[in-house]
Design a protein that fits this description.
7-stranded mixed β-sheet, globular, single chain
């Protein structure tokens, strides 16, 4: 694997948590409303979640509360959760917030926004070590979304409009067996 420079904002994102990150099982946090958010310490612990499901579409969005375009598009991912799609679509929001702000910022944000999608936190400061494993074309910028399903593997490093996300997901669902 060829190392490339990581955008400064990702480097700054992971520097404060470098002393806390270690490979190990996920730990759970809970919002006041009872929503569980699992914190995965190290990409290896998260990697099993990033596999294509049998027969369905998995939409994995990488985001952070400090990323304005990420926050703007979150309602569109929430709509995917609420839309029917005959139970064929699952949304996983992979949060990249600062570890020290998970309780003070992330949990209240999820509660206030009423986020229903599955949310996990990736706590791994070695961005060069895992960004390429998600997709070799990824520069590290967020928002970024990976779509996985039978015969489907598409990565998009962009923010979505409601219409563009709905159109893309609908086209993938139509291709499912």
């Amino acid at each position: 694997m060829q190392l490339r420079s990581v955008p400064l904002f990702l480097t700054l994102l992971f520097l404060p948590i470098a002393n806390f990150a270690q490979t190990g099982p996920a730990t759970d946090l809970r919002t006041e409303g009872g929503k569980t958010v699992s914190v995965y310490e190290g990409f290896e612990t998260l990697a099993p979640l990033l596999r294509a499901p049998d027969g369905d579409l998995l939409v994995i969005n990488f985001w952070a509360t400090w990323c304005a375009p990420c926050v703007k598009e979150l309602p569109y991912f929430e709509e995917l959760v609420r839309d029917d799609f005959d139970g064929r679509v699952r949304v996983l929001l992979v949060n990249l917030d600062f570890r020290k702000q998970l309780v003070s910022r992330l949990l209240p944000f999820l509660e206030k926004q009423g986020i229903q999608a599955d949310v996990v936190v990736l706590d791994d400061p070695d961005a060069n070590g895992w960004i390429d494993r998600v997709d070799s074309s990824w520069s590290g910028a967020i928002p970024a979304t990976l779509f996985l399903g039978p015969g489907i593997r598409e990565f998009r490093e962009q923010s979505f409009t409601r219409k563009d996300l709905q159109t893309l997901v609908t086209s993938f669902v139509e291709k499912l067996p």
